[in-house]
Protein backbone atom coordinates (compact mmCIF):
# COMPACT_ATOMS: atom_id res chain seq x y z
CA UNK A 1 0.00 0.00 0.00
CA UNK A 2 1.33 3.45 -0.86
CA UNK A 3 0.62 6.06 1.79
CA UNK A 4 1.16 9.83 1.89
CA UNK A 5 0.83 11.73 5.17
CA UNK A 6 0.08 15.44 5.21
CA UNK A 7 1.61 16.84 8.41
CA UNK A 8 4.70 15.37 10.07
CA UNK A 9 4.13 16.31 13.71
CA UNK A 10 3.69 13.99 16.70
CA UNK A 11 0.85 12.11 15.03
CA UNK A 12 1.92 12.22 11.37
CA UNK A 13 5.50 11.21 12.10
CA UNK A 14 4.65 8.38 14.48
CA UNK A 15 1.83 7.06 12.25
CA UNK A 16 3.98 7.26 9.12
CA UNK A 17 6.90 5.51 10.78
CA UNK A 18 4.70 2.74 12.16
CA UNK A 19 2.93 2.23 8.81
CA UNK A 20 6.39 1.87 7.21
CA UNK A 21 7.27 -0.62 9.95
CA UNK A 22 4.20 -2.65 8.90
CA UNK A 23 5.73 -2.78 5.41
CA UNK A 24 3.81 -0.02 3.63
CA UNK A 25 5.49 2.56 1.41
CA UNK A 26 5.19 5.91 3.22
CA UNK A 27 6.02 9.53 2.44
CA UNK A 28 5.62 12.05 5.27
CA UNK A 29 5.01 15.55 3.95
CA UNK A 30 5.24 18.84 5.82
CA UNK A 31 5.30 22.54 5.00
CA UNK A 32 8.01 23.05 7.63
CA UNK A 33 11.21 22.88 5.58
CA UNK A 34 13.45 22.82 8.63
CA UNK A 35 11.60 19.83 10.07
CA UNK A 36 11.79 17.91 6.80
CA UNK A 37 15.46 18.76 6.28
CA UNK A 38 16.22 17.49 9.79
CA UNK A 39 14.34 14.24 9.18
CA UNK A 40 16.04 13.73 5.82
CA UNK A 41 19.41 14.07 7.49
CA UNK A 42 18.50 11.54 10.19
CA UNK A 43 17.65 13.78 13.14
CA UNK A 44 14.23 13.68 14.80
CA UNK A 45 12.62 17.01 15.67
CA UNK A 46 10.57 15.73 18.64
CA UNK A 47 11.43 13.65 21.69
CA UNK A 48 9.53 10.38 21.54
CA UNK A 49 11.07 7.20 23.01
CA UNK A 50 11.93 4.56 20.40
CA UNK A 51 11.08 6.74 17.42
CA UNK A 52 14.56 7.59 16.17
CA UNK A 53 15.80 4.02 15.53
CA UNK A 54 12.50 3.04 13.92
CA UNK A 55 12.70 6.01 11.54
CA UNK A 56 16.32 5.20 10.69
CA UNK A 57 15.55 1.53 10.05
CA UNK A 58 12.59 2.20 7.75
CA UNK A 59 14.24 5.10 5.93
CA UNK A 60 17.24 2.87 5.24
CA UNK A 61 14.98 0.10 3.96
CA UNK A 62 13.50 2.60 1.49
CA UNK A 63 9.98 2.40 2.95
CA UNK A 64 9.93 5.83 4.64
CA UNK A 65 10.68 9.16 2.98
CA UNK A 66 10.25 12.82 3.98
CA UNK A 67 9.41 15.66 1.66
CA UNK A 68 8.11 19.20 1.43
CA UNK A 69 6.92 18.42 -2.12
CA UNK A 70 3.53 16.77 -2.58
CA UNK A 71 4.53 15.17 -5.84
CA UNK A 72 5.06 12.39 -6.66
CA UNK A 73 3.91 10.90 -3.30
CA UNK A 74 0.35 12.29 -3.32
CA UNK A 75 -0.36 11.28 -6.93
CA UNK A 76 0.96 7.76 -6.33
CA UNK A 77 -0.76 7.24 -2.96
CA UNK A 78 -3.58 4.75 -2.43
CA UNK A 79 -4.37 6.40 0.88
CA UNK A 80 -3.60 9.96 2.05
CA UNK A 81 -3.79 10.75 5.75
CA UNK A 82 -4.35 14.33 6.87
CA UNK A 83 -2.53 14.66 10.21
CA UNK A 84 -2.03 18.42 10.43
CA UNK A 85 -2.64 20.41 13.60
CA UNK A 86 -6.14 21.47 14.67
CA UNK A 87 -5.31 23.94 17.45
CA UNK A 88 -7.88 25.99 19.29
CA UNK A 89 -8.83 28.92 17.09
CA UNK A 90 -7.10 32.22 17.73
CA UNK A 91 -10.47 33.86 18.32
CA UNK A 92 -10.44 32.17 21.73
CA UNK A 93 -13.96 30.83 21.30
CA UNK A 94 -13.02 27.19 21.70
CA UNK A 95 -13.59 26.21 18.07
CA UNK A 96 -10.97 23.98 16.47
CA UNK A 97 -9.01 25.88 13.82
CA UNK A 98 -9.51 23.88 10.62
CA UNK A 99 -7.41 26.14 8.39
CA UNK A 100 -4.61 23.58 8.08
CA UNK A 101 -6.99 20.69 7.36
CA UNK A 102 -8.73 22.51 4.52
CA UNK A 103 -5.44 23.87 3.18
CA UNK A 104 -4.08 20.30 3.03
CA UNK A 105 -7.27 19.18 1.25
CA UNK A 106 -6.95 21.99 -1.31
CA UNK A 107 -3.30 21.12 -1.90
CA UNK A 108 -3.85 17.42 -2.56
CA UNK A 109 -7.03 17.86 -4.65
CA UNK A 110 -5.48 18.61 -8.07
CA UNK A 111 -2.84 15.90 -7.63
CA UNK A 112 -5.05 12.86 -6.98
CA UNK A 113 -4.53 10.07 -9.55
CA UNK A 114 -6.69 6.96 -9.66
CA UNK A 115 -8.89 5.89 -6.77
CA UNK A 116 -7.66 7.41 -3.50
CA UNK A 117 -8.93 7.33 0.08
CA UNK A 118 -8.46 10.63 1.93
CA UNK A 119 -8.41 10.03 5.67
CA UNK A 120 -8.77 12.60 8.44
CA UNK A 121 -6.47 11.53 11.26
CA UNK A 122 -6.47 14.95 12.88
CA UNK A 123 -9.00 15.49 15.67
CA UNK A 124 -11.79 17.44 13.97
CA UNK A 125 -15.37 18.50 14.72
CA UNK A 126 -18.22 16.38 13.46
CA UNK A 127 -18.85 17.12 9.81
CA UNK A 128 -15.27 18.01 8.88
CA UNK A 129 -14.55 14.93 6.75
CA UNK A 130 -17.59 15.72 4.62
CA UNK A 131 -16.37 19.31 4.28
CA UNK A 132 -12.98 17.97 3.20
CA UNK A 133 -14.79 15.91 0.55
CA UNK A 134 -16.56 19.04 -0.70
CA UNK A 135 -13.29 21.02 -0.83
CA UNK A 136 -11.62 18.30 -2.92
CA UNK A 137 -14.61 17.77 -5.23
CA UNK A 138 -14.89 21.51 -5.90
CA UNK A 139 -11.19 21.86 -6.62
CA UNK A 140 -11.04 18.75 -8.78
CA UNK A 141 -14.44 17.49 -10.02
CA UNK A 142 -12.70 14.61 -11.84
CA UNK A 143 -11.10 13.19 -8.70
CA UNK A 144 -12.01 9.57 -7.87
CA UNK A 145 -11.87 9.46 -4.09
CA UNK A 146 -13.65 8.74 -0.82
CA UNK A 147 -13.13 10.30 2.58
CA UNK A 148 -12.84 8.53 5.92
CA UNK A 149 -12.30 9.42 9.54
CA UNK A 150 -9.62 7.52 11.46
CA UNK A 151 -9.00 9.38 14.73
CA UNK A 152 -5.74 8.75 16.53
CA UNK A 153 -5.51 7.74 20.21
CA UNK A 154 -1.75 7.55 20.74
CA UNK A 155 -0.25 9.19 23.81
CA UNK A 156 2.90 11.26 23.53
CA UNK A 157 5.71 9.54 25.41
CA UNK A 158 4.25 6.10 24.69
CA UNK A 159 3.29 6.78 21.08
CA UNK A 160 4.98 3.83 19.37
CA UNK A 161 3.55 1.25 21.76
CA UNK A 162 0.11 2.84 21.55
CA UNK A 163 0.20 2.87 17.76
CA UNK A 164 1.50 -0.68 17.42
CA UNK A 165 -0.81 -2.11 20.10
CA UNK A 166 -3.90 0.10 20.15
CA UNK A 167 -6.94 -0.73 22.27
CA UNK A 168 -8.97 -0.15 19.11
CA UNK A 169 -8.80 1.26 15.60
CA UNK A 170 -11.76 3.48 14.72
CA UNK A 171 -12.64 3.69 11.04
CA UNK A 172 -15.54 5.87 9.93
CA UNK A 173 -16.57 5.77 6.31
CA UNK A 174 -19.66 5.35 4.18
CA UNK A 175 -17.88 3.35 1.56
CA UNK A 176 -17.01 -0.37 1.58
CA UNK A 177 -13.97 0.02 -0.69
CA UNK A 178 -12.46 2.74 1.50
CA UNK A 179 -13.18 0.63 4.59
CA UNK A 180 -11.44 -2.41 3.09
CA UNK A 181 -8.36 -0.36 2.21
CA UNK A 182 -8.08 1.05 5.72
CA UNK A 183 -8.61 -2.37 7.26
CA UNK A 184 -5.83 -3.69 5.02
CA UNK A 185 -3.48 -0.94 6.22
CA UNK A 186 -4.05 -1.81 9.88
CA UNK A 187 -4.35 -5.59 9.54
CA UNK A 188 -0.63 -6.26 10.29
CA UNK A 189 -1.32 -4.98 13.83
CA UNK A 190 -2.92 -8.17 15.06
CA UNK A 191 -2.40 -11.74 13.98
CA UNK A 192 -5.84 -12.95 15.00
CA UNK A 193 -8.25 -10.09 15.28
CA UNK A 194 -7.79 -6.34 15.16
CA UNK A 195 -10.30 -4.56 17.40
CA UNK A 196 -11.84 -2.42 14.67
CA UNK A 197 -14.73 -0.10 15.40
CA UNK A 198 -16.28 0.27 11.96
CA UNK A 199 -18.77 3.08 11.88
CA UNK A 200 -20.03 6.18 10.09
CA UNK A 201 -17.88 9.24 9.54
CA UNK A 202 -19.80 11.38 12.06
CA UNK A 203 -19.65 8.70 14.75
CA UNK A 204 -15.90 8.24 14.30
CA UNK A 205 -15.36 11.98 14.58
CA UNK A 206 -17.36 12.13 17.79
CA UNK A 207 -15.72 9.05 19.37
CA UNK A 208 -12.42 10.90 19.59
CA UNK A 209 -13.89 13.91 21.39
CA UNK A 210 -16.03 11.75 23.67
CA UNK A 211 -13.03 9.61 24.65
CA UNK A 212 -10.81 12.61 25.44
CA UNK A 213 -13.59 14.39 27.33
CA UNK A 214 -14.20 11.28 29.43
CA UNK A 215 -10.51 10.92 30.30
CA UNK A 216 -10.39 14.62 31.22
CA UNK A 217 -13.48 14.01 33.38
CA UNK A 218 -11.71 11.26 35.32
CA UNK A 219 -8.78 13.61 35.99
CA UNK A 220 -10.94 16.53 37.12
CA UNK A 221 -13.04 14.16 39.24
CA UNK A 222 -10.09 12.76 41.16
CA UNK A 223 -8.61 16.26 41.52
CA UNK A 224 -11.79 17.39 43.25
CA UNK A 225 -11.71 14.30 45.47
CA UNK A 226 -8.06 15.13 46.30
CA UNK A 227 -9.07 18.64 47.33
CA UNK A 228 -11.79 17.19 49.53
CA UNK A 229 -9.28 14.74 51.02
CA UNK A 230 -7.08 17.66 52.04
CA UNK A 231 -9.95 19.20 53.98
CA UNK A 232 -11.24 16.03 55.68
CA UNK A 233 -7.83 14.46 56.35
CA UNK A 234 -8.24 11.51 53.94
CA UNK A 235 -5.65 10.08 51.54
CA UNK A 236 -6.60 10.33 47.87
CA UNK A 237 -4.29 7.45 46.90
CA UNK A 238 -6.31 5.08 49.02
CA UNK A 239 -9.54 6.63 47.74
CA UNK A 240 -8.40 6.14 44.12
CA UNK A 241 -7.33 2.57 44.83
CA UNK A 242 -10.58 1.81 46.59
CA UNK A 243 -12.53 3.21 43.66
CA UNK A 244 -10.34 1.86 40.89
CA UNK A 245 -10.41 -1.76 42.00
CA UNK A 246 -14.08 -1.71 41.07
CA UNK A 247 -14.02 -3.10 37.54
CA UNK A 248 -16.80 -0.74 36.51
CA UNK A 249 -14.55 2.23 37.33
CA UNK A 250 -11.04 1.00 36.55
CA UNK A 251 -7.78 2.23 38.08
CA UNK A 252 -6.45 4.38 35.24
CA UNK A 253 -6.57 8.17 35.11
CA UNK A 254 -7.36 8.44 38.81
CA UNK A 255 -4.10 10.15 39.69
CA UNK A 256 -4.47 13.65 41.14
CA UNK A 257 -2.17 16.47 40.13
CA UNK A 258 -1.94 20.08 38.99
CA UNK A 259 -4.62 19.68 36.30
CA UNK A 260 -4.46 18.22 32.81
CA UNK A 261 -2.58 19.92 29.99
CA UNK A 262 -1.03 18.97 26.70
CA UNK A 263 -1.98 19.34 23.09
CA UNK A 264 -5.27 17.43 23.28
CA UNK A 265 -7.42 17.46 26.45
CA UNK A 266 -7.70 21.24 26.88
CA UNK A 267 -8.50 22.02 23.25
CA UNK A 268 -10.63 18.92 22.65
CA UNK A 269 -12.87 19.48 25.69
CA UNK A 270 -13.39 23.09 24.60
CA UNK A 271 -14.09 22.05 20.99
CA UNK A 272 -16.61 19.44 22.16
CA UNK A 273 -18.42 22.14 24.14
CA UNK A 274 -18.60 24.32 21.01
CA UNK A 275 -19.96 21.43 18.93
CA UNK A 276 -22.61 20.73 21.59
CA UNK A 277 -23.51 24.39 21.87
CA UNK A 278 -23.86 24.72 18.10
CA UNK A 279 -26.33 21.86 18.14
CA UNK A 280 -28.21 23.15 21.15
CA UNK A 281 -27.20 20.26 23.41
CA UNK A 282 -26.09 20.73 27.02
CA UNK A 283 -22.77 19.11 27.98
CA UNK A 284 -22.70 20.32 31.54
CA UNK A 285 -20.30 17.67 32.82
CA UNK A 286 -17.62 18.61 30.28
CA UNK A 287 -18.23 22.27 31.04
CA UNK A 288 -17.58 21.61 34.73
CA UNK A 289 -14.50 19.53 33.87
CA UNK A 290 -12.83 22.48 32.13
CA UNK A 291 -13.72 24.82 35.00
CA UNK A 292 -12.41 22.38 37.61
CA UNK A 293 -9.18 22.07 35.64
CA UNK A 294 -8.59 25.82 35.58
CA UNK A 295 -9.39 26.01 39.31
CA UNK A 296 -6.93 23.19 40.04
CA UNK A 297 -4.04 25.12 38.53
CA UNK A 298 -5.01 28.20 40.57
CA UNK A 299 -5.21 26.01 43.68
CA UNK A 300 -1.65 24.78 43.04
CA UNK A 301 -0.43 28.40 43.00
CA UNK A 302 -2.10 28.96 46.39
CA UNK A 303 -0.66 25.69 47.71
CA UNK A 304 2.88 26.78 46.79
CA UNK A 305 2.29 30.27 48.19
CA UNK A 306 1.00 28.92 51.50
CA UNK A 307 3.92 26.53 51.83
CA UNK A 308 6.23 29.53 51.40
CA UNK A 309 4.59 31.17 54.40
CA UNK A 310 1.88 33.11 52.59
CA UNK A 311 3.88 35.01 49.98
CA UNK A 312 6.18 34.10 47.12
CA UNK A 313 7.58 37.63 46.83
CA UNK A 314 11.37 37.53 46.84
CA UNK A 315 11.42 33.72 47.09
CA UNK A 316 13.40 31.37 44.87
CA UNK A 317 11.44 28.30 43.73
CA UNK A 318 13.10 25.24 42.21
CA UNK A 319 10.84 23.52 39.68
CA UNK A 320 11.42 19.94 38.59
CA UNK A 321 9.70 19.19 35.30
CA UNK A 322 8.09 21.62 32.85
CA UNK A 323 6.49 19.39 30.18
CA UNK A 324 2.82 18.51 30.66
CA UNK A 325 3.80 14.91 31.33
CA UNK A 326 6.96 12.77 31.37
CA UNK A 327 8.65 11.38 28.27
CA UNK A 328 7.76 14.29 26.04
CA UNK A 329 9.17 17.71 25.22
CA UNK A 330 5.70 18.99 24.35
CA UNK A 331 4.88 22.17 26.28
CA UNK A 332 1.45 22.83 24.76
CA UNK A 333 -0.89 23.94 27.57
CA UNK A 334 1.43 22.46 30.20
CA UNK A 335 0.25 23.39 33.73
CA UNK A 336 3.70 24.94 34.31
CA UNK A 337 2.81 27.61 31.74
CA UNK A 338 -0.01 28.83 33.99
CA UNK A 339 1.42 28.13 37.44
CA UNK A 340 4.92 29.60 37.01
CA UNK A 341 3.89 32.97 35.50
CA UNK A 342 1.35 33.37 38.34
CA UNK A 343 4.16 32.89 40.88
CA UNK A 344 6.58 35.17 39.03
CA UNK A 345 3.93 37.86 38.79
CA UNK A 346 4.06 38.08 42.57
CA UNK A 347 7.83 38.30 42.78
CA UNK A 348 9.05 34.70 42.76
CA UNK A 349 12.25 33.68 40.95
CA UNK A 350 12.16 30.30 39.19
CA UNK A 351 15.06 27.88 38.73
CA UNK A 352 13.88 24.94 36.65
CA UNK A 353 15.02 21.64 35.22
CA UNK A 354 13.37 19.29 32.75
CA UNK A 355 15.13 16.31 31.11
CA UNK A 356 13.81 17.11 27.61
CA UNK A 357 11.55 20.16 27.49
CA UNK A 358 13.85 23.04 28.48
CA UNK A 359 14.53 24.18 24.91
CA UNK A 360 10.82 24.25 24.12
CA UNK A 361 9.98 25.79 27.53
CA UNK A 362 12.47 28.62 26.96
CA UNK A 363 10.37 29.82 24.03
CA UNK A 364 7.39 30.32 26.36
CA UNK A 365 9.16 31.13 29.63
CA UNK A 366 12.34 33.03 28.73
CA UNK A 367 12.56 34.71 32.14
CA UNK A 368 13.27 31.61 34.21
CA UNK A 369 16.70 30.14 34.92
CA UNK A 370 17.26 26.75 33.29
CA UNK A 371 19.49 24.40 35.24
CA UNK A 372 21.59 21.43 34.19
CA UNK A 373 20.25 19.06 36.87
CA UNK A 374 17.51 18.87 39.48
CA UNK A 375 20.16 19.46 42.15
CA UNK A 376 21.44 22.57 40.43
CA UNK A 377 17.85 23.88 40.37
CA UNK A 378 17.49 23.30 44.13
CA UNK A 379 20.68 25.15 45.06
CA UNK A 380 19.71 28.00 47.41
CA UNK A 381 15.97 27.72 46.68
CA UNK A 382 13.30 28.41 49.30
CA UNK A 383 11.17 25.49 48.09
CA UNK A 384 11.15 22.79 45.46
CA UNK A 385 8.06 22.01 43.36
CA UNK A 386 7.88 18.66 41.59
CA UNK A 387 5.77 19.52 38.54
CA UNK A 388 6.26 16.55 36.17
CA UNK A 389 6.88 12.97 37.31
CA UNK A 390 9.86 12.13 35.09
CA UNK A 391 11.54 8.87 36.09
CA UNK A 392 14.71 10.71 37.05
CA UNK A 393 12.76 12.59 39.76
CA UNK A 394 11.39 9.41 41.33
CA UNK A 395 14.56 8.46 43.17
CA UNK A 396 16.17 11.79 43.94
CA UNK A 397 18.93 12.01 46.53
CA UNK A 398 16.62 13.69 49.03
CA UNK A 399 19.31 14.24 51.65
CA UNK A 400 21.32 16.18 49.06
CA UNK A 401 18.21 18.13 48.00
CA UNK A 402 17.57 19.10 51.61
CA UNK A 403 21.15 20.30 52.01
CA UNK A 404 20.92 22.36 48.81
CA UNK A 405 17.64 24.07 49.71
CA UNK A 406 17.63 27.17 51.86
CA UNK A 407 14.49 25.91 53.58
CA UNK A 408 13.38 22.26 53.33
CA UNK A 409 10.00 22.82 51.66
CA UNK A 410 8.96 20.17 49.13
CA UNK A 411 5.73 20.58 47.14
CA UNK A 412 5.00 17.41 45.21
CA UNK A 413 2.28 18.11 42.65
CA UNK A 414 2.48 14.51 41.37
CA UNK A 415 2.54 12.64 44.69
CA UNK A 416 5.78 10.87 43.82
CA UNK A 417 6.99 10.70 47.43
CA UNK A 418 5.51 9.35 50.66
CA UNK A 419 4.43 12.04 53.16
CA UNK A 420 5.64 10.01 56.14
CA UNK A 421 9.10 9.39 54.71
CA UNK A 422 9.48 13.05 53.70
CA UNK A 423 8.54 14.16 57.21
CA UNK A 424 11.09 11.75 58.65
CA UNK A 425 13.75 13.32 56.43
CA UNK A 426 12.84 16.71 57.91
CA UNK A 427 10.97 18.24 54.97
CA UNK A 428 7.85 20.33 55.15
CA UNK A 429 6.12 18.23 52.49
CA UNK A 430 2.84 18.66 50.69
CA UNK A 431 1.40 16.50 47.97
CA UNK A 432 -2.06 16.73 46.38
CA UNK A 433 -4.84 15.20 48.44
CA UNK A 434 -2.59 13.50 50.97
CA UNK A 435 -2.19 14.10 54.70
CA UNK A 436 0.42 16.72 55.56
CA UNK A 437 2.99 15.68 58.16
CA UNK A 438 5.07 18.76 59.02
P1 LIG B 1 1.75 18.98 15.34
O1 LIG B 1 1.55 20.42 15.50
O2 LIG B 1 2.85 18.29 16.10
O3 LIG B 1 2.00 18.65 13.79
C1 LIG B 1 1.24 19.16 12.74
C2 LIG B 1 2.15 19.33 11.52
O4 LIG B 1 1.36 19.64 10.38
C3 LIG B 1 3.18 20.45 11.65
O5 LIG B 1 4.49 19.93 11.48
C4 LIG B 1 2.81 21.42 10.54
O6 LIG B 1 3.93 22.07 9.96
C5 LIG B 1 2.14 20.48 9.55
N1 LIG B 1 1.28 21.11 8.55
C6 LIG B 1 0.39 22.13 8.69
N2 LIG B 1 -0.22 22.40 7.52
C7 LIG B 1 0.29 21.53 6.60
C8 LIG B 1 0.05 21.29 5.24
N3 LIG B 1 -0.83 22.00 4.54
N4 LIG B 1 0.74 20.32 4.61
C9 LIG B 1 1.64 19.59 5.29
N5 LIG B 1 1.91 19.76 6.60
C10 LIG B 1 1.24 20.71 7.24
O7 LIG B 1 0.35 18.29 15.66
P2 LIG B 1 0.06 16.84 16.30
O8 LIG B 1 0.29 16.88 17.76
O9 LIG B 1 0.75 15.80 15.48
O10 LIG B 1 -1.51 16.75 16.07
C11 LIG B 1 -2.08 16.54 14.81
C12 LIG B 1 -3.56 16.19 15.00
O11 LIG B 1 -3.69 14.95 15.69
C13 LIG B 1 -4.36 17.21 15.82
O12 LIG B 1 -5.64 17.27 15.32
C14 LIG B 1 -4.36 16.58 17.20
O13 LIG B 1 -5.48 17.00 17.96
C15 LIG B 1 -4.47 15.13 16.88
N6 LIG B 1 -3.92 14.23 17.91
C16 LIG B 1 -2.76 14.56 18.56
C17 LIG B 1 -2.25 13.69 19.51
C18 LIG B 1 -0.98 14.03 20.27
O14 LIG B 1 -0.70 13.37 21.27
N7 LIG B 1 -0.17 14.99 19.83
C19 LIG B 1 -2.89 12.47 19.79
C20 LIG B 1 -4.05 12.16 19.07
C21 LIG B 1 -4.56 13.05 18.14
Automatic annotation (TrEMBL):
Binding-site residues, substrate: 153-156, 208, 253-257, 261, 325
Residues forming coiled coils: none
Protein name as it appears in the record: UDP-glucose 6-dehydrogenase
Top enzyme class: oxidoreductase
A molecular-function term among this protein's GO annotations: NAD binding
Positions annotated as active site in the UniProt record: 264 (nucleophile)
Database matches in SUPFAM superfamilies: 6-phosphogluconate dehydrogenase C-terminal domain-like, NAD(P)-binding Rossmann-fold domains, UDP-glucose/GDP-mannose dehydrogenase C-terminal domain
Amino acid sequence: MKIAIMGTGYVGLVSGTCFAEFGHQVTCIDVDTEKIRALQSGSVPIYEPGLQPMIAKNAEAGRLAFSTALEPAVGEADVIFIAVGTPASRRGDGYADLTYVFEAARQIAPLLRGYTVVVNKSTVPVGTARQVARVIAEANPEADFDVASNPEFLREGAAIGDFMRPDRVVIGTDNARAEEMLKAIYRPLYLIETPFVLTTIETAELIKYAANAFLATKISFINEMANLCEEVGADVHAVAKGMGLDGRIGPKFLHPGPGYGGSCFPKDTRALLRIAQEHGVACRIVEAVTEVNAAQKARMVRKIRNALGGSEAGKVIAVLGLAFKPETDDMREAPSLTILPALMEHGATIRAHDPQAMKEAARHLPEITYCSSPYEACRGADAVVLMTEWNEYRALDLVRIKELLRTPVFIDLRNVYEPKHMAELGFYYEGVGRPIRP
